[in-house]
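Researcher: Here's a chain I'd like modeled. Treat it as a single chain, no partners, no ligands.
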Amino acid sequence: MNIPRFLQLYKEGRLEEAFESVVMDNPLPASTGRVCQHPCDNRCRRMSLDEAVNMRDVHRFIADGVYKSDLFEPMTERIIARKLPSTGKRVAVAGAGPTGLTAAFYLAMLGHDVTVYEAHQQPGGMLRYALPEYRLPKSVLDQEIDLIRRTGVKFVCNTRVGYDLTLNELDNQYDGVFLSVGTWKETAVDMPGVELEGVMHALSFLEAVGKGEPVNLGRRVIVIGGGNAAIDSARTALRMGSSVTVVYRRERKDMPAIAEETAAAEAEGAHFVFLAAPHRIVGEQGRLKGIEVVKTRLGEFDASGRRKPVSTEEIQGFKCDTVILAIGERVDPDFARAAVLNATKTGTIEVDRFTLQTSRTKFYAGGDLISGASNVSNAMGYGKKAVRNMDRMLMGRNRMPELFREFEHSQSPPDEPSLSRRHHSGCLAASERVKQFIEVEVGLTADDAHEEASRCLRCDIRETAVR
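Model: Modeled as a single isolated chain. C-alpha cells:
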C-alpha cells in the first residue's frame, strides 16, 4: 500500500480520493483495518521519535467512512470505471479467502472474465469462518465482497476444486487458474487422549461458532497454543460463559499472536500458563476429564529465532470439560495429490518463487497454499503478485500500472513533527464486551484519524540534491 499517499489525502480532507487510493492498493481495507497484524508499523520512521503512525486504524476509518455512508454507491462506480476493456480471457480462482478475493478483484479490474470457486457456502475463507464476530463483523466483510462482485467477479460456492471440479476440467475451460485454497486441515497431534469427547481443534471450533452451530464447552476450557487461533478460541469461549486457561510452551514474549489481542483476552478473564506443553489428555469412559502438562524451560535458539522449549519432566494437572488444540493448520495433503501438482515435504504447493507459477503452465498459486499458515496481509500480497504475472502470461506485457491513477497532493514534509502521540482505537470495557459478540474495537474518531494522519513524517519524499 502507498501509505503516505492515503494519509496525506485524508489529511487534506479528501476522503473519497483517500478511499480510492486505499481500495486500489488493498481491496479489503475495512477487514484488514480490523484484523491485520500491522507489520507496516515496523517500517515507520516515526518510531525513532515516539511511536509508529497508526496506519491500520486510519485506513479502517477511511474505509468505514465510505462503506457506512451514502458515498458507497458513487465510490463503487468510480472504482468500476477504472476497469480495463474486456480481454476475452477467462480465469478461474480456487478459494475465496483473502488471497483469492484479492486476485479476483485485480483480475476483473484488468478486464478478465473471473469465476471464483469456493468450498464453503459463502465467500470469505478464514475471514468469515475463523475470525470471530467481535473482531470482524461479517456485515463489514459482506460489503467488501459486494464491491468485488460488482467489478464482475462471479462466485460459485459449495464447490471444492480438486474434488467436485477437477484441475483438468479447469484447464480445459479457462485460460488461467489461480489456486488459493488455504490451510483448512489441523496439524496432527500425537498425544494420548486426543480422541476423547470434549477435545476439539481451534479451527473446527471457530468455524462451528461462526456458522451458528451448537457447541457445548462446559464450565472449564483449556486452550493449547499461543497463536491468533488460540487467542480467538479463548476469547470466544469466554463469551460462551466458560472459564478459560491458555497453555503455551514458551514465554509470553514469544507468542505469535497479536500482542493487543493477547492483552485483551487477559483483560476479559483468560488465565495464562507459560512454559508448559501438553503431555496427555485424561478421560473416563470416552469422555474428557482433564489434561496433564509438562513444565518446560527454554533451551537453544531454533529456526524460528526463538528459544526451543525443553521438557523438565515436571507434570501439572488441570481438570477441564473441553480442550481446544490451537497448534497450527496445514494444507490438505489430498489436494496436492488430487491436483497432480508438485508439492513440498510439508504439503504446500511448489511454485516459481518469482512468478508463483506451479508445475502446470496455466496454474498459479498463492497464500497459505504455498507458504503454510500465515496472516492476512501476506495472503493478499501473494494474490496481487500472482495477478501481475498471470496477466503478463495472458496478455504479453505488464498492465498492472494502468489500473492506478496519479493523485495530486502536497509533496512537502512537515516543518516540525506533530507533537501528538499515537491514537488508539476506542474499545468497549472488558466487563461489557465479554458478555456478547458485538464488535470490540470501535475505531478512531474523525479528529483522532486526522491527527494520526498528520503524524506522518512523509519519508516517501525524496529531496533533489543541488549541485
